[in-house]
C-alpha cells in the first residue's frame, strides 16, 4: 500500500491526528471518577462535601441527576450512578472535575464513600459447583438462559458407538487498544456534545439519549481518531459522566482513563466453562450436546448478548443431525461483559476444534478428514436451521491440510503442526446509509465513521467506491462528519464496514450513474467515468461530457448528491428449534483455516510459535493490502489469547494484573510473519461479493495453536491460555 | 469502607543533574530523610513514582556523571554504574569472556529498554526477579560505592538485601561494579512471555578456573536472588558427572525458598529450577573437563 492511498497516514505520521486522549477545549476542566472500593455491597452514602470544599471542584453523584437531567433521572434501568447495590469494583459512584488533573484526582480521593461490603461472586465454578442444574434458570445469578434442540438427541447418544465428553475453560481477555477511553464534553442549552474516541458515533448517541433521557436530536457525537477499538469502544463508557460534569460546571470537561483504569473499567470477554459431548456412529456424528456457563460480569438482565450468540460457535461449522445446547449467562461482580474482536468466538473455536480433534482420535479417523467430512458446505443446514450460503471453508481446509502435511514432513523433532478452523458472519448492525457527492473534480463520501485504524473506512470504502464508479483513489475523498451532519450508520464493528457500509456506497454509486445517464439521455449500463486533466468526465457511446458541464446551477458549489442504504438482514433461524432465548443468525458464512507450527519444550512446557499460515475466505479481497493487514493483526491478537493473555481476579474481585507487564500481549518476537492466502470466489453479501474481515482472522488462532501443541507433545490442553505451566501439567510434569 | 481509591497524580519534585560526584552526593544529602532519590535510566524509578510507592521531593539525575564506562584491567571487568545495558551487551569481550553475563544482560526487557536501563539501577532496585543480580552473584562481583564518608567496596551478596533494600547508606551511590575474573558461565531463564516480562525462575552458573569451583545462583524467589553453595559443591571441581548434576539439580529444586504467585506456582518453579540448572551447567563451555 502506498502512503498516498490512505489519507490518514500523513496526519498520523506527522503526529497531528487528534485522538480522544489528545482532545482538549479552551477553558475545560479535567475529570476523575470515584470508583467503588468493593466488588459487591450496599451503598450507604457518597459524601461529595469534602471534594466540593476544594477550590474549583465540581462534583456529581446520584443525587444530582434529578436536577442536571431534563427529564429527571435518565434511564431508571441503567442508572448512571448506582443508588443501592454496588455491582463491581471500580464501578463509578460519582465524578469530579477540577482545573487540573492532579486536583481532580485529589478531589476524587477525598470523596467519602460508605459501602457495606457483601459477598462477591467472582469465580463461576465455586459459585456453581453442580452447574445451574434443571432449576438453574431461576437462580438470581442467571440473567440469561438460552436453550435450543433438534431431533432425538437422547436416542442418538443411547445408540452411539462412541460418546466423547469433555470440559473446557477459557480465560478473560482484554482488547488492549493503545489509546484508552477518553472524551471531552460540552453542554450548551439543550445541546449535549461530546468529542470522543468511538467505534460507533451513532451508537453512542443512542446510548446517551437513553441514559440521559434527552432526545437524540439534542446529542451530538464528534468522533476523534481512534487509537484502536477491537470492540472495546462500541458503546458509551465515559461520555455520560463527562456530560453530566460539563452540565454542572457550565464548562467543557475532559475525562480519560489511565491505562490501569482501562483494565479495571473496560468491558471485555470474561471466563467461561463449557461442557461438550459428541455421539458417533459409523464414523459419523449423530448427536451433540453443549452446555455453557458464561461469566457476563455485572451485565443487567435482558442486556446480555453473548450467551445465545456464542452457542452456535461452540458447535463449530459441522453438520449434526441432532443436538441440544444450553447456555447460562451468569451475573458476577466484575465489569459487564463486552465485545472483544469476534467476541468470545476464538474461545468457542478453541473448544469446538479441540473437541472435534479429540472425537476424531477416539473414533480413529484422521482429524482433518473427520472435519472435512462433517463440514458445512453450501446448501447444508446449520444446527439452528439456517441454510448455508457460499462458504469457502472446505476449500480453505483442503489447502491448509496440504500445507500442514508439508510443514510436518519438514519439522524437526519437538515441533508439531496443527490446523484450526473458525467461522463467522458479517454483521449488518442496525443498517446504515452512505452519501456520495460528485463534484467536477472529485467524489466525496460523506459519512460518520472515523474508523478504528484498520483502514476499513479510509482504504476499504475508497476501494469500494473506486470499483463502483471506476474513479482512481486520488479522486475519492472520505469526509468525516459528526452525527449532526452525517447519514446514519451503525458503527465500525462486527466486520461490517466494507461488507455493509460498502454496499450502501455501491447503491449510491448506482444512483450517481443513473442520475448521470438521465442527464445525458443514455442507458445507465453505457455510462463510464474517467479523469482527464483536472476534470472528471463521463463517457457513453458517442458522448463525452465533463461532470462540470452536467451540474445544475444549484449544484455548482457542491455536486451531484446520491444516497444508498443497507439494512439489517431478517432472522433466518428455524424458531421451532429454539426452546428459549435468542440466538444469532448469520448474514453470510465466512471463516478460515489456519496452520500453526510450534515447538514445545518437553521439560518446561514452553510453547513457541515457529511458523503460521492463514487461508482466509474473503469472498473478494476488495483491497488486498488492507485485507492482509487485518489477517496479520488478527493472528497476532489471537496468539495472545492462545498463549499468554489472561486477566486474573482475586476472590474479592480485584483485578490482579491491571497493567501491561503481567497482562501479556505478544511482542513482535512471539509473532512469526504469517503466510496469508485469500480464498476467493465464495461470494458474500458485501459489495462485489466481499465478506467481512475485521474479526474472522482472530477466530481460528487458539484452535490451530492448541492442535499444534498436541501434535508436538501429545498435550491435549483444555484450558486457555496454553501457558507453559498448563502444558507442563497436562504433560504430567507436575 | 471509605476512599481514597482513585488513581493518583504524581506529585511534583525538583529534578537536578549535578556534573560532579561530590555535587551529586551533596544533592542527595541535602534533602534529608529519604526526600531525595537518584535516577539513572529511570525504568524502575518511574514506575515507583507513578504508583505512588515513592514520592521524593528531589530527584537527582546521574546522567552527567562520568560513569558510562567499561574497563578491563588485569582480567577484571569494571562496569560504570550508568553505562546503558545495551553498551555492555554490544561489547565483544564481555560476550567472549563472560558469556553468562552477556546472556543475563541480553535477557533484560527489550532492546529499547536496554538502551536506557543501567547496571547501577538494577542493583539499586534490587528486585527479587532481577536478571543481573544472580549472574553477578555467581561471578563473585563486587560493588564500588561512593558516599559522604568516602569509598567502599562491597560484595554483591552483601549489597543486595531484599526487594528495594540494599546496603546503600544515605547519600551513597553505586559508582561501578567489578567482576574479578573471566568465567565460563551461563544464564537461563523462563518467562510467560520471552520479552518484557519477569522471569518465573532464572539460574546463573559460573565456573572459576583459578579456584576450580562452581557458583550457582537463582532468581525468582523472595526475598532476593541467592547463591546456593551446597548445590555448587555437589558439582565438584570440574565438569560434573551426570549423577552429580542430577543430584545438584534435585537439591536445588528442593532447597530454594520458593513460593507461588500469579506468575507461576511453587511446584512449577521448583521444576524449573532443576531443569534450568541442569541445562545451564551443560551449556557452560567445557571440553575434556577443562573450561575453554
Ligand atoms: C518493561 C520493563 C521490563 C523490564 N525487564 C527486566 C528484565 O527482564 N530483567 C531485569 O532484571 N529488570 C527488568 N526491568 C527492570 C529495570 O529495567 C532494570 O532493573 C534496570 O536495570 C534498572 O535500571 P535503571 O537505570 O533504569 O534504574 P532506575 O529506574 O533509574 O533506578 C532504579 C533504582 O536504583 C537507584 N539507582 C539508580 N542508579 C543508582 C546508582 N548509581 N547508585 C545508587 N542508586 C541508584 C534509583 O534511585 C532507583 O531506586 C524491566 C523494567 C521494565 C519497565
What order do the helices and strands come in, and which of them pair?
The complex is a heterodimer of chains A (734) and B (292).
Chain A: H1 9-13, E1 29-35, E2 41-47, H2 49-52, E3 58-61, H3 65-68, E4 85-86, E5 92-98, H4 101-110, E6 112-117, H5 124-127, E7 142-150, H6 153-158, E8 162-170, E9 182-188, E10 191-196, H7 201-212, E11 219-223, H8 239-249, E12 253-256, H9 259-265, E13 272-281, E14 284-297, H10 306-315, E15 323-331, H11 345-363, H12 367-374, H13 393-410, E16 415-424, E17 432-438, E18 443-447, H14 456-469, E19 476-480, H15 497-520, E20 528-532, E21 535-540, E22 543-546, H16 547-550, E23 560-566, E24 578-580, E25 590-600, E26 607-619, H17 624-643, E27 675-680, H18 701-713, H19 724-730
Parallel strand pairs in A: 1-12, 10-11, 14-15, 18-19, 26-27
Antiparallel strand pairs in A: 1-5, 2-4, 2-6, 3-5, 7-15, 7-24, 8-13, 9-10, 9-12, 13-14, 16-25, 17-18, 17-23, 20-21, 21-22, 25-26
Helix pairs in contact in A: 10-11, 11-12, 11-18, 14-15, 17-18
Chain B: E1 14-16, H1 21-30, E2 36-39, H2 45-50, E3 58-61, E4 70-73, E5 76-80, H3 85-90, H4 92-97, H5 99-106, H6 111-116, H7 119-125, H8 132-138, E6 142-147, E7 150-155, H9 156-159, E8 160-162, E9 165-166, E10 173-179, E11 185-190, E12 201-208, E13 213-219, E14 226-227, H10 229-234, H11 242-255, H12 266-283, E15 286-287, E16 290-291
Parallel strand pairs in B: 1-3, 2-3
Antiparallel strand pairs in B: 4-5, 5-10, 6-7, 6-10, 8-9, 11-12, 12-13, 13-14, 15-16
Helix pairs in contact in B: 11-12
The structure holds flavin-adenine dinucleotide (FAD).
